[in-house]
């Protein structure tokens, strides 16, 4: 009887530094993705409540208008980044 394993040594490729880096990058991406989506989701939920006082004040002042547009751009970005949160 032979003690033959289902995988021979030839089928296992030696690990290269590039392969390990790709694996580390994938692991890091997976580790960061969940919290980033969570944070982006809740920022997208909360940020419109900051828009209301700015709109109530009026957008006549250029600094208020610029602040409103910057917050609106951040809100759109947060919506994009957080859209997949809690979808398993």
Q: Can you give a write-up of this model?
A:
Helix content is 69%, strand content 0%. The chain has a domain at 34-88. The mean pLDDT is 81. By secondary structure, it is mainly alpha-helical. It is built from three helices and no strands. It has helices spanning 17-46, 48-57, 62-82. The longest helix is centred in the middle third of the chain and has 30 residues, at 17-46. The radius of gyration is 24 Å and the shape is elongated.
Shape: elongated
- Alpha-carbon distance between the two ends: 47 Å
What structural class do helix, strand and pairing data support?
mainly alpha
What value does the average pLDDT take? 81
In angstroms, what is the radius of gyration?
Answer: 24 Å
Q: Report the sheet-strand fraction.
A: under 5%
Element order: H for helix, E for strand: HHH
Number of helices: 3
Q: State the oligomer.
A: single chain
**Unreliable segments of 5+ consecutive residues:** none
The beta-strand count equals: 0
Percent range for helical residues? 55-70%
What can be said about the biggest beta sheet? none
Keywords: Membrane, Transmembrane, Transmembrane helix
Pfam family, one: DUF8028
Biased composition (Basic and acidic residues): 18-27
Transmembrane segments: 38-56, 62-82
Please outline the helices and strands.
Blueprint (H helix, E strand, L loop, with lengths): L16 H30 L1 H10 L4 H21 L6
Features of the shown structure:
elongated; 88 residues; mainly alpha
Short description:
The protein is mainly α and 88 residues long. The chain has three helices and no strands.
């Amino acid at each position: 009887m032979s003690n033959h394993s289902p995988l021979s040594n030839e089928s296992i490729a030696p690990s290269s530094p590039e392969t390990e880096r790709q694996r580390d990058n994938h692991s890091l991406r997976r580790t960061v993705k969940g919290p980033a989506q969570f944070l982006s989701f809740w920022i997208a939920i909360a940020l419109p409540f900051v828009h209301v006082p700015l709109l109530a004040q009026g957008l006549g002042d250029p600094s208020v208008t610029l602040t409103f547009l910057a917050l609106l751009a951040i809100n759109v970005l947060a919506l994009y980044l957080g859209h997949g949160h809690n979808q398993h």
